[in-house]
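Bench log. Compound arrived from synthesis this morning; before running ITC I wanted a structural hypothesis for how magnesium ion sits in the protein. Inputs:
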Amino acid sequence: MGIRTVQPDPQEATTGKGKASRILVGAAAIAQRVGELGLQLTADFAGKDPIFVAVLQGAVVFFADLIRQVQLELVCDTISVSSYRGGGHPAGEPQLILQPREDWKGRHIIFVECIVDTGMTAKLLAQMAAERQAATVRLCTLLNKPSRRTEEVRCDYVGFTIEDHFVVGYGLDFRGRSRNLPHIEVVST
Ligand code: IMP
Ligand code: MG
């Protein structure tokens, strides 16, 4: 399924507040990979009228780009799960803070996530889809950080597999900031 490991881009960047950061995945590489994922999803969900579910907030940028690369009739939905409370450390079990709008019963659900880290959020998503009696459930994540996994979860579509870095940009935040960066960069804390 085209899972790749990303080595840090040698280009160094410095962003605000005196934090040294480095670009891990550039905007062009992201765009290319999103196009590839779109092609795969187009092939896999042809004729299935799937529901693409954006996992807010982190997935908004990825979701917006991805759905435009899927050449199918589809329905969009949103949910919001909170796991980090304003910092870089997990604060217990993830919580659903925005309910889906669509009826998932008997439908093909594709969750679109920004990153799978411990897997706790992904596990909650799978439980939600099962409770709502979805026909099939797939997880599409821009980034996969398998080194910190505590839960057994299946990532069906992965943009990039990364090492144990805390990253921001392209929707991902650190304390609510940096979601608007067009690339993904490592935060040195
Ligand atoms: P999990 O439940 O541990 O898999 O974490 C998933 C959530 O943690 C993501 O949706 C992000 O909000 C957050 N997260 C995990 N790693 C990072 C990171 O490197 N940068 C920004 N957010 C992260
Ligand atoms: Mg976050």
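What the model suggests: Residues 58, 84, 173 surround magnesium ion (ligand 2) (CB under 6 Å). The two ends are 33 Å apart (CA to CA).
ITC booked for Thursday regardless.
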